[in-house]
Amino acid sequence: MEDHKKRFDIIIRKLKDHGHKLTPQRLAIVTILARSEGHPSVEDIFHQIKKKFPTMSLATVYRNIVLIKSLGEVLELGFPDGSNRYDGNNPTPHPHVICIKCKKIVDPDLDSLDEIQKEVASETNFTILNHRLDFFGICSDCMAEKV
Amino acid sequence: MEDHKKRFDIIIRKLKDHGHKLTPQRLAIVTILARSEGHPSVEDIFHQIKKKFPTMSLATVYRNIVLIKSLGEVLELGFPDGSNRYDGNNPTPHPHVICIKCKKIVDPDLDSLDEIQKEVASETNFTILNHRLDFFGICSDCMAEKV
DNA sequence: TTTGCTGCAAATAGTTTGCAGAGAC
DNA sequence: GTCTCTGCAAACTATTTGCAGCAAA
To answer: pLDDT digits over B36-65, tens only?
Structure first.
């Protein structure tokens, strides 16, 4: 996908424009976030980079995610159990479908929630800024396993 | 509202049926959960009870919430920042509207997400078991404060 | 050369757990 | 009288932070 390359360039550009340095560690993190294959966790990112960068520190992953989040270039999916998954490929809020067995996260193609959001806004008198919609279930792969 | 009384009775009945004892601390927690006015946090519940029960322990609140959750009689709204809010008045999944300033949580009247859920299920081949929908914004009270 | 970044280790904070005594039934 | 529950304090764990040295620009 060219898509990943575009996202990588956008994030790098934004980092430069804001005066941040491009360290090898940072580039490695941005590379993974731009792809965000399977919506990686901090640990996923850390272990993936650790293979080529044995001195890589978890703190560096956390710090860079905080930075890139502050630039609005990664969507953080935090869960109540403390786990976090990231989407730097599509950083705008969108629904997710999560397999509670294998933890796979999929982006469904859905009509946007614009109408529902307007309905909620007019009914509650809130100014709605953001939303989060997650569906939890079991993916077909896990359903197939009779184990 | 008679509603709160009914919920209280249902939760108490379920606790008894499962062989759990009704201690004063537990009754106090259930009373608050049955009402769930404003979707209380663990701290809210703890401090409210502490007034009449000076020895009340946070651990007891946590343990009882875990218990009542396991009976399916309270909906836990966990947030990525670690905060938790509870709804023991309506323990089935439903949308919430959250003020990011005053932390007020409101239940909007919305058409159910059944159709969207079916759409997601057929598109992704997941068996959907559950969902969560939160809208984040600013309530009219907080908008009015020009401070 | 300057300034921000990294790695390490220690600190943090909400939640959970072990244990001994108290209390519901 | 039995067995669960409670309160306390310690343990746990993901994330954050202080600091000294390192490296991008």
So the answer is: 999 999 999 999 999 888 999 999 999 999
- Domain of residue A52, CATH code: 1.10.10.10
Same domain, residue pair B23 and B82: yes
Residues paired with B96 in a beta bridge: B134
Interface residue of A110, A126, A131 to substitute, partner B, most B CBs within 10 Å: A126
Distances (CA, A) of B34 to A40, A72, B3, B9, B44: 38, 39, 9, 9, 14
Domain boundary among B56, B87, B118: B87
Which two three-digit tokens encode residue B97? 């509207």
Range of the domain at B134: 96-145
- Chain B interface disruption, residue of A84, A133, A138, most B CBs within 10 A: A133
Say what the pTM is: 0.89
Both A10 and A60 in one domain: the answer is yes
A24 and A44, same domain (yes or no): yes
Cβ-proximal residues to B137 (8 Å cutoff; 6+ apart), any chain: A121, A126, A127, A128, A129, A130, B97, B98, B99, B100
pLDDT digits (tens, 9 = 90+) for A90-131: 999 999 999 999 999 999 998 878 889 999 999 999 999 999
Same domain? For A42 and A79 the reply is yes
Q: Rounded to an integer, what is the distance from CA B28 to the centroid of its chain?
A: 16
Strand partners, A128: B137
How many H-runs (helices) and E-runs (strands) does chain A carry? 6, 5
**Domain finish residue from A59, A87, A115:** A87
